[in-house]
């Protein structure tokens, strides 16, 4: 099975996922995997720890530079996957930042509710700079997503373009404000 | 298949699952969500106008089982049945927001194995970046 490429940003992942969910609202599955890397074989890890210990004993400098505790604490990763078995489309996003968890899960909630993330993203960016009705747009997006499919897709397309183009600069501004 | 828990039970169990995985620093937790389609309603329009409840599942995928290499002497089937954790709950559309707020909190609290934000950076740049921005 060919490995699915990971999307570069969470925003891209959420946008693509929302489009996939719109296309196949009933059969799309979102998986969040919180995983630690596989433990190394015991013999290898033993030898590595012993070498690091001996190194630390002989040269105290290395001990301060790389404390064994940080090495022992395996770094977990979070992988989000949106998969639609009917079409075989699979979207993935990987992160190891704790700061992203809350936002991502909340976004999954919006996706689950059928909200159009790409539209929300655009609306959010507009609101951050121009003070446009971000909240109203959110509500509208919700209603549209459930009611009129065609209207949503055209609206989403337009807003997606805007969101992608302006996203980076505007997000930075938004960051400063909040 | 295990029965759907109520939200409170689900969160409690999920917290336990996440923290135990984080403490051991090995294994995985899989969380899935998908619409729970009712087989009764045949009207397609009705289905689209009323969003279906969301089924949330959490499992450790048996990854918390003892290392098979280390304990290969034990019976394999027995181990699997013993250790696999499976949780599930159903969220109604009107409960989604409440549920996910809580869900995000539980996940944030439980997933301690992830890279923490650098404190120096946080102080220098302010709290602002915390929630919103994706900066790789």
TrEMBL record, chain A:
Stretches the record annotates as Disordered: 32-72, 146-178
Pfam family, one: SRP9-21
Protein name: Signal recognition particle 9 kDa protein-domain-containing protein
Superkingdom of the organism of origin: Eukaryota
Domain SRP9: 8-112
InterPro entries recorded: SRP9-like, SRP9_dom
Compositionally skewed regions (Low complexity) per UniProt: 44-72, 146-157
Bias (Basic residues) ranges: 167-178
UniProtKB/TrEMBL annotation, chain B:
Biased composition (Basic residues): 114-126
Bias-annotated ranges (Polar residues): 37-49
Annotated localization: Cytoplasm
Ranges for region Disordered: 37-87, 112-136
Database matches in Pfam families: SRP14
Record key words, sorted: Cytoplasm, Ribonucleoprotein, RNA-binding, Signal recognition particle
Keyword Disulfide bond set for record: no
Ribonucleoprotein found in the keyword field: yes
Superkingdom: Eukaryota
Principal location class: cytoplasm
Function: Component of the signal recognition particle (SRP) complex, a ribonucleoprotein complex that mediates the cotranslational targeting of secretory and membrane proteins to the endoplasmic reticulum (ER).
PANTHER family found in the cross-reference section: SIGNAL RECOGNITION PARTICLE 14 KD PROTEIN (PTHR12013)
Subunit structure: Component of a fungal signal recognition particle (SRP) complex that consists of a 7SL RNA molecule (scR1) and at least six protein subunits: SRP72, SRP68, SRP54, SEC65, SRP21 and SRP14.
Family to which this protein belongs: Belongs to the SRP14 family.
Entry protein name: Signal recognition particle subunit SRP14
């Amino acid at each position: 099975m060919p490995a699915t490429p990971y999307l570069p940003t969470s925003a891209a992942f959420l946008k693509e996922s929302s489009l996939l969910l719109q296309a196949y609202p009933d059969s799309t599955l979102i998986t969040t995997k919180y995983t630690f890397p596989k433990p190394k074989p015991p013999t290898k890890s033993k030898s590595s720890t012993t070498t690091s210990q001996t190194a630390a004993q002989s040269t105290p400098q290395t001990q301060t530079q790389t404390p064994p505790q940080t090495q022992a604490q395996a770094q977990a990763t979070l992988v989000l996957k949106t998969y639609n078995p009917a079409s075989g489309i699979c979207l993935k996003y990987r992160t190891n930042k704790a700061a992203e968890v809350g936002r991502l899960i909340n976004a999954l909630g919006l996706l689950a509710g059928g909200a159009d993330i790409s539209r929300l993203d655009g609306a959010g960016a507009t609101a951050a700079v121009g003070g446009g009705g971000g909240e109203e747009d959110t509500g509208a997006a919700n209603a549209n997503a459930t009611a009129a499919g065609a209207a949503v897709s055209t609206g989403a397309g337009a807003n997606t373009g805007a969101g992608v183009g302006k996203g980076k600069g505007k997000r930075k501004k938004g960051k400063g404000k909040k | 298949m295990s029965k759907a828990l109520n939200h409170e039970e689900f969160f409690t169990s999920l917290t336990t699952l996440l923290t135990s995985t984080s403490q051991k620093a090995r294994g995985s937790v899989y969380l899935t969500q998908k619409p729970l389609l009712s087989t009764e309603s045949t009207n397609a329009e009705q289905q689209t106008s009323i969003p279906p409840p969301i089924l949330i599942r959490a499992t450790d995928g048996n990854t918390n089982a003892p290392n098979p290499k280390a304990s290969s002497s034990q019976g394999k089937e027995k181990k699997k049945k013993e250790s696999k954790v499976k949780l599930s709950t159903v969220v109604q559309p009107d409960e989604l927001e409440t549920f996910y707020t809580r869900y995000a909190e539980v996940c944030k609290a439980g997933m301690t194995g992830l890279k923490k934000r650098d404190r120096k950076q946080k102080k220098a740049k302010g709290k602002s970046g915390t929630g919103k921005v994706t900066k790789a």
